Every structure is written in structure tokens, then in C-alpha cells.
Amino acid sequence: MQVAAGDDDIRHDYFHTVSVERLEAATDARGMPQAWLHRSAAPSITTVFGGKGPAAFEMGMSAINVPFAIPHVRIEGAEVDAHTRIGWFRSVSNIPHAFAVQSFIDELAHQAGTDPRRFALDLIGPRRKILPTALSDSFNYSESPEVYPVDMGRMRDVLEAATQGAGWGRKLPPGQGLGLAFAYSFLSYTAAVVHVAVDDKGAVTVHAVDIAIDCGPQVNPERIRAQLEGGVVMGLGLALLGEITFAQGRAVQSNFHDYEVLRHHASPREIRTHLVNDDHGVPAGGVGEPPVPPIAPALCNAIFAATGKRIRALPIRSVA
Q1: Is the dihedral of CA 284, 69, 228, 42 positive or negative?
Q2: Structural contact between residues 190 and 183, judged by C-beta atoms closer than 8 angstroms
Q3: Lowest pLDDT segment from 32-36, 48-52, 67-71, 170-174
Q4: Residue 104 per-residue DSSP state
């Protein structure tokens, strides 16, 4: 019996972790959060090596290191048994954490009756640099917290670049919407705006994505743009289609006929990349993994803008 390479990879490989994320906030009269609670439950990659988790580096990926202007923050991570082998995946724990956090921010903005862009900028707060250790982040991607502080000015700049590139605030036809999200990961700052249309049957079409990055010094800008474009397509594919399920102890999916990846016809017609000023006197950050985390929440926030329906579980497949 012959087994195709895809069969072997999909059924017998290491898998990215699943997670359940819960966020709560107490808000002031303007709708801005004054207390923030994030509970994350996910099997840890350390289980492969006999650990239990959650590991400090996992919680340091878009969970405890949320440097927003919120007086009271509590982050909790739960120990969860793993039922399969967990392996490395592009952007690792930033994916579930950023999806939850950025979706929640959009929900808070809607509750406050504030434009999501304005709300996000107010939540980010003024330009300032924060030591990761002040956020209880002992990981900081294994780099010096003094050399790589979390720079909220850089975060504001990528958000401004992505929203400007997308024409944020423009009027769209019924059934269409723009959604935004932003993330600090692998020492770089990214923001994305996704433009979607949802038809009366719930089918989602992604018209365009604007993605901005500040990764510090830019040695090869075209390589950076390629990574951004690839991250957008991967992020959309994961959010819309990517799923491995298990039955009787084995993966149900076996190859690309039932484990779907984003195909050309479903990819956005336009991906506009924005490389933000790199004159910060800080060494280079990553460009391969940072494009992925903001894509799924920006997509889901766009779907909400188009339909009024919140997406709380992935993959989406259909909004119907």
C-alpha cells in the first residue's frame, strides 16, 4: 500500500495546539477598559518534552505582553492535557492569543459606540517605551528587554499605515466591511485591515488586505513584502478553512482534498504591503512570523462590520 506524502504529514505529524480563550473587562463611562482579565487554556508544546505548561514563552506571545493603557490587568493560563503531539507552527501561540485579544478589542469598541481605529489608538495610548519585564514578560523572544522594549509609538505607526492604506472610514456597499487588528510578535509590530464581502448565503469573499510592519532595519524590502504576502494568505487560509479533527484517536483529514488550504480563486485580489519607517536605533525584528497573528481577527472584525455577526470559533467556512 502506498501512502502519499500529504497523508503522512497530515495524519502523523506534530500539530498546532488548540485553545479556548476568555476575556472580560470592566469599562469606564467612555467604554474604555479599566480592568482586563484574559484566561487562556491550551495544551502546551512543552508536553512533547515531558512538561505541563503553559510555558512562559507561550504566555509571552500576545497574552501577558499586552501593553495597553489599562490600570488593572490579570492574565491566567490553565494547565491542559495534550492528546496529540504538539509542534512548532508559524507564529506559535500568538495566533490564538491575538485572535482573542483583537476580536475583544473590536467588541469593546462596538459596545462603546466608538470607531474601532479610534478605540484601538486610545487603548494603545501615548507614545512610550515599556520594558517587557514590567509586563511580567520574562521571555521577550529570548532577547534583551533593554535592547528591545515594547514601543507603543511603533505600534501606533503600523496601525496608522494599515488603516490609511485601506482607506479606513470610507463608505462601503451593504454586505461589505473593513476590520482591523494589530500585534507585537517576534520583536516586530504589525497591523492589518481586511476588506470583505459576505453574500446572502454567508459566503465570504476577501477583496483586499492592507498589512503594515515595522521590523526595524530593512535589509531586503522585497523579501519583507514576500513574507507579508505569504503571511496574509496563510492567515486567511487558517481562519477560513484550516482544521484537523480527530476520531478514534486518529486524524480524520488525510490530504488536501479534506484538509483545505486557501486556493488562488479564494485569495484576496489585492494585498497591499506597507513598510513603516525603520529609523529607531533598534536591531532588526522578525518578518516571517509577525504577519500571521493580526489576519484572522481583522478578517472576523470585517465580517462583523459587514453582517453584525461575531465569529468566536475558527475556521469560519461560512457565516450562514
Answers
A1: positive
A2: yes
A3: 48-52
A4: H
